[in-house]
Structures are given as structure tokens and as C-alpha cells.
User: Fold GntR family transcriptional regulator from Streptomyces physcomitrii.
Amino acid sequence: MQIAEEVVGQIQAGVLKPGELIPSESELVRTYGVSGGTIRKAMAEVRASGLVETRHGKGSTVVDRPPVRHRSSDRFRRSHRQGGKAAYLAESAQSGATAEVKVLHIGPVEVPAEIADRLGVDAAAQVLARRRLYLRNGTPVETATSYLSWDVVKDIPELFAENPGGGGIYARLEDHGHEFAEFVETLQARPSSKVEAAELALTSGAPVIRLVREAVTTSGRVVEVCDTLMAADQFVFQYRIPAAD
Amino acid sequence: MQIAEEVVGQIQAGVLKPGELIPSESELVRTYGVSGGTIRKAMAEVRASGLVETRHGKGSTVVDRPPVRHRSSDRFRRSHRQGGKAAYLAESAQSGATAEVKVLHIGPVEVPAEIADRLGVDAAAQVLARRRLYLRNGTPVETATSYLSWDVVKDIPELFAENPGGGGIYARLEDHGHEFAEFVETLQARPSSKVEAAELALTSGAPVIRLVREAVTTSGRVVEVCDTLMAADQFVFQYRIPAAD
DNA sequence: CAGTGGTCTAGACCACAAA
DNA sequence: TTGTGGTCTAGACCACTGG
Assistant:
């Protein structure tokens, strides 16, 4: 812990600059006069602080800046959609980062039990799943799967396309008479499993956030459920809560 | 990783039951025929999964069940306050758990830079801080510090008391003409530092959530900023977002 | 190829818990 | 006192990187 604190301190004090390689583990072994295993644990601590990125065979680099993106609750404003951008790209445009969306799968699937409950469909029903991976500056930060009731999507061919058109799927749904009343988001943070860590290019155990969003129409129906897994270090969430009675 | 998966599998399969001690590390060394260091790392993996709690000198126990509490965004409804309960206790009443609040400190402090910014006060200003620790079923789950502008609180003696009376500090503020318009919550999840883990009785590195809430009055002023640190495994957050234009 | 991080070993010593 | 987890050592071997 002492060694880790010293290294972190050197980074924060600017002795080690962003983009720079920090001393190798064997070098630290020599300078501190401790064994390799101890240095390994110290470096694991430094990594956990998020100030450093380690690559096997190369070394550890001071990270340029923890790239955090804001998720504010006004990202569902219609005015963002009418600008011709999906929520994700609308946000990225504000922060000046390169954003990319990779579509992993679009097609009918058997609905997972938890989603069926939220969508209000039968347990064995077929739904449309749209699974995609979001990248930011080339690194994956988020996987998201939208589930849509079949009877809602069957008349909207755009929802089967990789690119659903300007404004994203929410705009298409409103085009077809599904007017949204509200979105309900449920968040939970937990350590990542191994496969999740691999998907999001995280070290195993690094925190992830699971966010499940229900899109509720003015008729009270949940037409879409979006199940999202995010690298926790990449996001800050902001919600405005009216002080209702 | 293989050993960790096998142990986790045994827990999930019910071979190892909640409350039960799992085999000791030296026992695992014998059964798997690997060295102690390897077992240590495997157990660290199992711990990270959250299925197990380890106590030095005793062993590792299968955790009974992760007790999760909901934080819904309607917990600031005035009707909850008028019922004579603070937000925290109002929530706990719904979930049937024993809740406890321990006041750690109430008094004037020099305002932290980040808070000064949000409160809209000078950098060196004095503010009232109310620091408290929330316990659930006897274990700490959350620390929270409320910061209030001095000129707001100086006329409200209840805010200096351990128990500010029915409805909590928000009710007292509204009693004195500060009517709330909205609350803005900002969340971020990250691994816990050593001291944070100690405060919340977590294993170091387990995810925590930092939540900062600003209470905004109808006159547009932020009268309170509440800085909260929570054990991530204890909370699920839910927010309702109106589909505004 | 040399240097780096990643994993493992066998053993030592310490601190804590419970009988 | 015994058994537990927690930390460290000195050294081995492997896999990856980049010249």
C-alpha cells in the first residue's frame, strides 16, 4: 500500500506525466528493495485507482485523462431526436469524443424472463432484440440490448435495420403513434464478471453499472425495455427530480 | 480462475449453503494440490463475486443474501415528509429492515472546494455540515454529509440538533420559506479506497457509489448539497424521467 | 532477441479468532 | 494453543511487445 501510494502520488504530483511509461516492475523491485510479488500487488492497487493502464509485455502508462461521459436525464428530450441524432450520438457531440456504435445482432429472440415481466408479454413470447456495442475513442464502454414487443415492431420495418434513421428507434416509434410519457431507469453497480470484463475491456472485478430502461407510452404501455451494461469508470449519471407533492 | 469458478459454482449449486463456512485456504491447498498464493488469488476472485464474506482468523462464510434497498426518485415527495418521517426512514419502512442513523458530526466547517461551487458560496466560507452514518440491520451501508449555507441555517436552530424533527431537514427548510423546486442527483460508481472500504465494512476495492444531491428552491438557489457514499451492493436506484420536449 | 508483465511455487512470519 | 486469513520472499517459467 505504501509503495502504491507513493507511485500514485508521483502521478498526481506530475512527476510522471500522462502518456509516460512508469518504471517497470523489476525496476521497482530494485528501487524499493522488495520482492516481485509485493510490487505486483502495489501495481494492482495503482491500476485500481484508474490512473494507469498496463499492457502485457510493454509496461504501465499514465492514462491521459479519465474519459468520463455525462448521462443526463434530459437526453430523451424530443428536441434532441428532432435534430436527427440518436440519444447516444447527441450526447457525444457535446463532449467532443469520437463515438461509434457496432450492431451485434438484430432479430427475434425468446424473451428473457426478467424482460418479459417488464414488457408485459408472455414468458415464451418472441420479441425483437437489438443488441449493440458502444465504443468511445475506440474502446468499448457499453453494451445495450433493446427488447421490443413483436406486435409493436412488426409494422415498423426501420426497426429491423441496422440504422433506424434519424432520431433512433424512439423517433420511429413515435412516428407510428407510440407517444412516450416517461422513461423509468433502474441502476445497479456491481463488480464485473470475467466475461463482462472481457466484453468491456476492463480488468476483472472492475465496477460495472447495469441500467435497465423502460419506455412508457402515454397509454401506459411499456413498448421497449433496454438492458445496458456500462463500464462504471466511463460514466457519470445525472437526474433531475421535481419536488412533487 | 478455474478454482474460483468451481467454488462459486458450488455455492450457486447449493453445495455450500448460506451462513456456512467454506473450506479453509490451507484445506483448498491440499485438495487442489496448488500453492497457497494461488488459492489466495482464487479466493480473492470468489470474494469479488460478492457471494462470500471473509473474516481474518475465522474463515469465509457464504453470505445469506445481498440485502438490497431501493432508492426511488419519489422519496422526496412532500407527502412522505408530512407523514413525519425523514426520507431514509420512510424508505426503510417499506422494506421492513431495521434502519439506524448515527450522527457523526454537526457543526460549522470550511466548505470543500467542490461543494462551494455547487452551493454558490465563497471558497473560504463557513457552512454547516451534518455528517452521518446510515446502518441497515446493524451494518453500515452509507455515509452522508449535508452542507448548508450559513445564512440559510443561522435562523433555524433545529438544523443544529441531532434530530431535526419530523420530516427531516428538508421539512425544516420548507417551514422557513425555502420551497423546493427540484433535486439534482449526480451518481458515479468506482472501486472503494481503503479508508472508504473500512468505513462501510467492505472489502477493499468493492464498488461504491458516490451520489451528490443538490436541493434547489423555487427561487433557483441551491440551499443544500448532500455528498453521499454508498456500498454499491446495498442499493438499487430508480428514476422516472418525463418524456419532455 | 531482451525486457516487460502474468502466474505460480514452497516456505516463512504475522495477526486475528475461538476454544 | 491451534487454525485461520494476510503478507512477504526468492526464484522459476510463460506470454507478450518491440526492436
